[in-house]
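TL;DR need structure tokens for one chain.
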Amino acid sequence: MSELTHINASGDAHMVDVSGKAETVREARAEAFVEMAAQTLAMIINGNHHKGDVFATARIAGIQAAKKTWDLIPLCHPLLLTKVEVSLEAQPEHNRVRIESRCRLSGKTGVEMEALTAASVAALTIYDMCKAVQKDMVIGPIRLLEKSGGKSGDFKADSHAESKVKI
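>> reply
TL;DR here they are.
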């Protein structure tokens, strides 16, 4: 078995030992979407939501989630992130919100899970804040857009992949 696996020699799940890996600058970006009714999106855009600024709350939730990924996803390493950004964009032409997260650090393991967690939790926060108005919102797709740094090399998602996914 490979040295960098979540399965040990006994076949049990374990946290990968990254102590022998070199520290490099690592960065990852992820995106998520929340599809909703035009009226719900308009309420968010116009700032008419009785719970306050939906985008600001989702942004903070995404940042906090990225910092706690190790506490949410089994076998993830606790990381000292040096940068977490969460941006939200209303896309009225599609009745949805697009969320993009970016995580960065200098370390021995990547930040893909942190970026995906940030985007996911921001999407869930939008749902939570708006569920009293609309329960049938759809979250997804959620995907890794790109990652750089580390032994496994760089990754960049097909830029046309999102347009192929219908939500």
